[in-house]
């Protein structure tokens, strides 16, 4: 009899907890919506995350911050920017996160979409479709965002981390003017035997832009967090971009003390945004 009563109590508690859980509202980011976009070239479908500016007005053209690896980067970037924007110390921005292909493994999607060549020692395909993904951003993402919202195409910012940073370096080598600003965290310049370290970054004497490169001080071969010298990769990219740069181009390199590959990006994101969008008194 006692066992039966105890069983009844457990069932009641379980139902109460279940009911409590179902009664709670899920957490969502403020002013944020999610849409699916089809890549008109490849027919792949990508989830796009959009956070509207805090004080959106059709009378004002807003800078847009675009980022890859959105499931990881979007909450970090928007969260870190929320306080300085709300306090009026950073410009009001629109944020757009581009996720991985829907129905596809995230790791394989990013490996395919963000890499410039179809192979790298130790990696298997899919890879090397950076140009296809760049076409998607240029032809589909920009068209959708700039067709719906009052944005300033001359003030686009790209944020990418790791493979996303490598993809940013690829954009800089092929179509730098697509973005006015770049924030590249721990770019994987080692891909395919340092392929992107051997490319030309001729941005032109008329290119006006700002490029923020960062990397954790512990992102070296001596660290357990990476097999590659990410610090050397970031330094090399900085040198290539700073070489023969136009007077209107500003390039910044920051090595984050005590940070490794797993922890460097949040600091890179907010420091890069602050460097670009601080409201000067």
TrEMBL record:
Signal peptide residues on this chain, from the entry's feature table: none
User: Which parts of this chain are annotated as the region Disordered?
Assistant: 106-129
Matching entries from InterPro entries are given as:
AB_hydrolase_fold, Esterase-like, Siderophore_Hydrolase_D
State the UniProt keywords alphabetically.
Answer: Hydrolase
Task: Name the Gene Ontology molecular function terms of this record.
Answer: hydrolase activity, acting on ester bonds
Q: Does the keyword Hydrolase apply?
A: yes
Per the UniProt record, one Pfam family is Esterase
- Is Transmembrane helix a UniProt keyword of this protein? no
Similarity field? Belongs to the esterase D family.
Q: What name does the UniProt record give this protein?
A: Alpha/beta hydrolase-fold protein
Give the species.
Saccharophagus degradans
Taxonomy of the source species: Bacteria, Pseudomonadati, Pseudomonadota, Gammaproteobacteria, Cellvibrionales
């Amino acid at each position: 009899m006692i066992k039966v009563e105890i069983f009844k109590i457990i069932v009641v508690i379980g139902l109460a907890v279940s009911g409590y859980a179902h009664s709670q509202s899920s957490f969502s980011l403020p002013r944020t919506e999610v849409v699916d976009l089809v890549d008109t070239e490849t027919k792949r479908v990508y989830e796009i995350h959009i956070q509207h500016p805090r004080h959106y007005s059709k009378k004002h053209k807003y800078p847009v911050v675009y980022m890859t690896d959105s499931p990881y980067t979007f909450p970090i970037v928007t969260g870190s920017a929320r306080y300085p924007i709300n306090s009026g110390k950073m410009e009001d921005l629109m944020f757009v996160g581009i996720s991985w292909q829907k129905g596809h493994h995230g790791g394989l999607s990013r490996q395919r979409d963000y890499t410039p060549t179809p192979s790298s020692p130790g990696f298997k395909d899919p890879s090397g479709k950076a140009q296809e993904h760049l076409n998607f951003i240029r032809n589909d993402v920009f068209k959708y965002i700039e067709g719906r919202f009052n944005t300033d195409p001359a003030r686009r910012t790209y944020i990418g981390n790791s493979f996303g940073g490598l993809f940013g370096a690829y954009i800089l080598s092929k179509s730098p003017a697509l973005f006015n600003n770049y924030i590249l965290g721990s770019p994987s310049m080692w891909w395919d035997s340092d392929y992107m370290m051997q490319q030309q970054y001729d941005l032109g004497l008329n290119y006006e832009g700002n490029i923020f490169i960062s990397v954790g001080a512990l992102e070296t071969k001596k660290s357990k967090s990476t097999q590659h010298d990410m610090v050397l990769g970031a330094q090399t990219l900085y040198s290539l971009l700073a070489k023969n740069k136009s007077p209107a181009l500003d390039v910044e390199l920051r090595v984050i003390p005590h940070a490794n590959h797993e922890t460097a990006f949040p600091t890179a994101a907010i420091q890069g945004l602050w460097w670009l969008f601080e409201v000067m008194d």
